[in-house]
Specification:
This protein has 310 residues and is mainly alpha-helical. It folds into 2 domains: 1-68; 75-292. Helix content is 66%, strand content 0%. The chain contains 14 helices and no strands. The chain has helices spanning 6-10, 13-31, 37-51, 54-74, 90-98, 107-112, 117-143, 148-169, 175-181, 197-204, 208-214, 226-238, 243-262, 268-292. Helix 8 packs across helix 14 (268-292). 38% of the residues are buried. It is found in: Membrane. It is a multi-pass membrane protein. Keywords: Membrane, Transmembrane, Transmembrane helix.
Amino acid sequence: MTSLSPAKTGSKAFPWLISLFGVGHLAFVAAMGKLRWEHAAADLLLVGLAWAGPAPRRFLRGAFPLYLTGLLLDTQWLWLGLRGRIHTGDLWDLELALFAAPGNTTWPAYFETRTHAVLDFFCGFSYAAYLYEVFALALLYFFRKHPRFEVMCWAFMLCNAIGVVTYIVYPAAPPWYVMQYGPGPADLAAAPSQAGTARFDALLGIRYFANFYARNPNVFGAMPSLHAAYPVLVVWQAWGLGRAWRVGTIAFAALVAFSAIYLQHHYILDVVAGVVVALVACSAVEYAFARRESSAVTPVPLVPGGDSRA
């Protein structure tokens, strides 16, 4: 697997190469009329880390896949025209055939009329925290100087790359879309929806999910569920930290999986696909790192959350 090697990150050319990358990205989004303050903040942080010294450059070496993931997701508008036929009612029908809820409907539709403030709070919280859990574990590994830091960052990027490719090959409408627009031809003008997460915003009097989904350029990216994939990736990466971590991360992953369905953003099929994507991404990156380190004394093992240190 290609990465920024210690020799490269320590070279005099490295800060200049990273600076060129960051400035080039800023120039690109500005030229496309897509520039936001987050772009400037991310690129300035990127360049700053490259020039700040050995320790920040070590962080940048491992975390660079996270930056690339941000670029991948932020530039979805570039490839929307490459999508195949958009599937609206296909998944609804398959979900109904495999996992019918009482009343012969899908579980997302079932929960739409069976909500509770306690579920709204905990499901909304987990749906907001799923990304921060990834970053928190990555930072923990960095500050512990744990070799799994870089492994986790690359697995996260691959997980998202698989998701994006699937969105192009099999663009699919989420449950809330079918419930609102029906299973007919896709309405490309359909606006992103908070769906059930609107109840979390209303409960706390905030606009977190309203702002989050307002920036979503791809309404038809429901299969697989990356919301379900990220916590499963964390389970894998944290497995070697002990029983408490295993129980905690598995419980959180289960809550996010349920929340995806309860909040009408995903089907059970989307969640299962997200779990598979996370497992495939982690396995592939473990294998790649094991091959890269095959000549070392302590290679990264091909086991969930394994510790490569003796």
